[in-house]
């Protein structure tokens, strides 16, 4: 990567799920810290692939809409044919990584940070990133009565989802770029960083306990529905306004034993993203229908209509931005310099993209050799 590009990337922000190597097991971009095992077995029809069943994990979040829609519309199952799809939802990155390590799931949609954490802690033996899914969907939203400009953030109380969480590191990096000082562990300094679970952040905002928050969707739009204003969209801080928020991982054991199944899931992901982008209103409704099924309650129209446009559904895992995100965590003192060589295997994805007449994507030098 050219030095100028690397420098630009390092000015970007840390944007996706948890990076908890030195700060314990932390939640990723999600609505809770506990795993939620809502297994759903789908009857399979057609020719069976090399595995009887594939177990897929994802979050009930809009940033995982590729999984939500692909599952809801039966796109994954159609590609799998006679191999049965079994889906499980999680509310935290570490829980999904634990499930992958235990063999409870085979493939997962997850943020880059728990991917980095899981790969590093296993010394590069447990997973590969095999595809991309989404970019963006992270915003700094504030009380417009208290904060009118970016400089006004100094001295205020800003919530992030959790210590070491992707948005937490992103905000710490942004603060450092502003020249302000904040202790990464305590959150005390020129800005008060308050680690607040996404589930209660809207109530904290309504009570006046926080002045703003650096959060993923749909939390950001829930705050907007309470009168907050978007002060900054994190996408504006990245080259081409893209950074990885969700990618696709697979256990190395499953990838080795069932490459045809992995390829089928990736075909389903690519076709789902194409359908989402061609049918945004139908896709939004499909994702919300799946959220209702999983949580019992859909997002309100005001919230989902505000959140949806800020998320880009793409096949490229944006590997260069994952490298930059890891650098930001190291800079914040929350992560030792990780060895990410071999974290990607984009062979199957590029095969699928080529067959679909789409350009191949890069692993930024972090692929298997």
**What is the rounded Rg?**
19 Å
Instruction: Tell me the major beta sheet.
Output: 7 strands, mixed
Give the helix proportion (percent range). 25-40%
- Quantity of strands, as a count: 12
Mean pLDDT: 88
* Binned strand content: 15-25%
Query: DSSP helix count?
Result: 14
Shape: globular
- SS-based structural class? alpha/beta
Poorly predicted ranges = 1-35
In the sheet with the most strands, the strands line up as 1-3-2-4-11-5-12
First-last Cα distance: 18 Å
Q: Strand-and-helix sequence, N→C?
A: HEEHHEHEHEEEHEHEHEEHHHHEHH
Describe the structure.
It contains 14 helices and twelve strands. The protein is of the alpha/beta class and 369 residues long. Strands 1-3-2-4-11-5-12 form a seven-stranded mixed sheet, sandwiched between helices. It has a five-stranded mixed sheet with strand order 8-7-9-6-10, with helices on both faces. Strand 7, helix 6 and strand 8 form a beta-alpha-beta unit. Helix 6 packs across helix 13.
Quickly describe the structure:
It contains 14 helices and twelve strands.
Which SSEs are present, and which pair or pack?
Elements: H1 3-10, E1 40-42, E2 53-58, H2 65-72, H3 75-80, E3 84-89, H4 93-102, E4 107-110, H5 112-121, E5 127-136, E6 138-142, E7 157-160, H6 166-177, E8 192-195, H7 201-207, E9 212-216, H8 219-225, E10 229-233, E11 244-251, H9 252-257, H10 259-278, H11 280-295, H12 301-307, E12 311-313, H13 319-331, H14 347-355
Helix pairs in contact: 2-10, 2-11, 6-13, 8-12, 10-11, 10-14
């Amino acid at each position: 990567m050219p030095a100028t590009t690397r420098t630009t990337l390092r000015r970007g922000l840390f944007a996706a799920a948890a990076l908890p190597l030195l700060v314990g097991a932390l939640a990723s971009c999600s609505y809770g810290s506990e795993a939620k095992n809502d297994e759903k077995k789908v009857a399979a029809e057609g020719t069976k692939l090399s595995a009887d069943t594939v177990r897929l994990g994802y979050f009930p979040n809009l940033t995982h809409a590729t999984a939500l829609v692909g599952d809801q519309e039966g796109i994954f199952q159609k590609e799998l044919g006679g191999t049965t799809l079994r889906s499980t939802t999680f509310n935290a990155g570490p829980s999904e990584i634990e499930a992958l390590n235990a063999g409870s799931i085979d493939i997962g949609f997850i943020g880059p940070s728990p991917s980095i954490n899981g790969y590093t802690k296993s010394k590069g033996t447990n997973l590969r990133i095999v595809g991309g899914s989404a970019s963006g969907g992270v915003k700094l939203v504030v009380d417009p009565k208290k904060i009118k400009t970016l400089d006004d953030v100094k001295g205020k109380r800003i919530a992030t989802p959790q210590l070491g969480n992707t948005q937490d590191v992103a905000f710490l990096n942004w603060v450092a770029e502003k020249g302000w000082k904040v202790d990464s562990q305590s959150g005390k300094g020129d800005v008060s960083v308050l680690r607040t679970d996404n589930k209660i952040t809207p109530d904290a905002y309504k009570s006046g306990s926080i002045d703003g928050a650096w959060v993923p969707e749909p939390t950001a739009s829930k705050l907007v529905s309470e009168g907050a204003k978007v002060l900054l969209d994190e996408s504006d801080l990245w080259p081409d306004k893209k950074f990885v928020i969700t990618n696709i991982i697979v256990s190395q054991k499953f990838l080795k034993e069932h490459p045809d199944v992995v390829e089928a899931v990736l075909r389903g992901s690519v076709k789902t993203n194409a359908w989402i982008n061609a049918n945004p209103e139908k896709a939004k409704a499909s994702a919300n229908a799946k959220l209702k099924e999983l949580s019992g309650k859909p997002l309100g129209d005001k919230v989902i209509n505000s959140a949806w446009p800020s998320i880009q559904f793409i096949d490229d895992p944006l590997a260069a931005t994952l490298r930059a995100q890891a650098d930001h965590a190291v800079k914040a003192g929350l992560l030792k310099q990780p060895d990410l060589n071999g974290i990607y295997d984009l062979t199957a994805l590029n095969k699928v993209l080529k067959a679909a007449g789409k350009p191949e994507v890069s692993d930024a030098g972090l692929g298997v050799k």
